[in-house]
Amino acid sequence: MNLDARQLGQWIERRLSAAPASAAVPGRRPVTVVILVALIACAGAVPLLTSAYVMQLATDILTFAALAYSWNIISGCAGYLSFGQVSFFGIGAYATSVLVLRSGLPWYLAAPIASAFSGVVAALLGTVMLRLRGIMFALGMLGLARILVVVASDWDYIGAAGGLTLPAQLTPVAVYVAMWVTVIAAFALNYFVLQSGWGLSVTGVRDDEVAASAIGVPTARIKTVAFIMSALAPAAVGGLVAWNRSFLDPPSAFDPTLDLQVIVFALFGGIGTLWGPALGTVILVLVGEQFWAYLPDLQLALYGVLVIAVVLAFPGGIVGIANRFGWLRRRPVLAPAAFPVVSRPPHPAPPGNEIIIEVRDLTVRFGGLVALNGVSLAVRRGEMVSIIGANGAGKTTLFNAITGFVKPSAGGVFYQGKSVSDIPSYERARQGIARTFQIPRLMDSITVWENTLLAARYGKRADAAVDQAAWALHTVKLDGLWLEPTTKLSPGQQRRLEMARALALDPTVILLDEVMAGMTRNEQDEIRAVLRHFREFGVAAVAGVEHVISAIADISDRMIVLDRGGKIAEGVPEAVLRDPLVIESYLGKVS
Is residue 12 part of a domain? Predict the structure, then answer.
């Protein structure tokens, strides 16, 4: 029987299939500017035109808004649910009080210094706390607040359990103005996180930390900086509140109910949004005041019903409701008014036959399980190498070891002749080792454009990153869907987006893990056409892990077959697919 490589691949696939299976739109920044100008104008009128009660109410709103914006950075944007941001409120309150009482500094210098000190504390804590995720981080932060209560209660220098009595030096107007400055600073930090390229990295880490690292995002550094940013405003607010009250003790400095109120405000307004913390705070504080004034016996019950109703009916909060009418939508980061004209000329990889990626005697063990056993292989410049094998053969583990997500138990990985075994995954990506995943790992809360831009931005100016992202999307034919959320993409389109993201890194080698799985034949042909032109795109080498053997057999220069963690065959596709060992590894022994 005379079969070509593609027919052989289809034959094996039929046998395997017979076996039992084990949108956002670019927004307009002037809208934000107009709203801010209007708010500042109203703020300026409060001290001049209102009563002392309204002045205090406005100050309270600003206090909670600043705290909500700070919580929004670490929990809404970075995805670390915190029940202990009050720790930084208390640290700032005590630091400000000590600086004024012990050092004689004026409060307007003491509060910013206390805020900076809180940032230093957050940097130190972040190296430990940010290793936790989910409920463990939330409980860790809650425990931190309780520890600080105990420490403050036993520390005589800061008043211990009896607290500190502070001289009444601040006027209500001074506190009000200082709170406005703090809110504007917290708003500006949120705007930066939500609308900048750096902030896009924060969102990427929140959505999928592994995928973010694979496209060059230094995840540990990004999380730590976001944690520091979230600690600044609470410390400044704590210092102002303590000085305004003229008294400070541990229970009031580290009051856990403060965190709960802030969380409710952010959820009600819209977590992870620019206007959510402000809207949630203003609406709930004003509504709470009305409940207290007219229905004091039912205040808490009505307040709770309102919050629960909005959060359950509209998970996006007030901002989510506004978004349905086209209001307050987030502007995609660095998105031009229309998809850029792609005119990037091909830049072929330089000629040569040198080895780009080499694996030497690679062994990976997970406890007693040997996932890879002494595997050696090399991918040369200009080659398309396909790595095949049955489920559990070790293909994805091999890619994980090459890209830095799995630490080898023995052996090494070399890139362009240099060992990269001790280099973190994000640094390998920046050096030119790109990859896709067996199951697409996309950032679902951002657009197709931003997913690609996130990979393109490191090491490039903004205009160059925009051009690179546009070219990558155009190459895989996703330019018509560039502003859609990834959740609207079909499985085949999601895989093409992963390929675009890999191309956006401007890589030397791309490791494609099941890039054609779940695609129709037409979609496979489109990807095959892209793969054939990789050399023109400057990609020196490609290694593909595939089950869709027929789709890659005739475009592969070599095939490598893994079975139970070891390499059993290597060579040109026609010879490899006829190898009895390869057929046996897929289909088992024929009796």
Answer: no
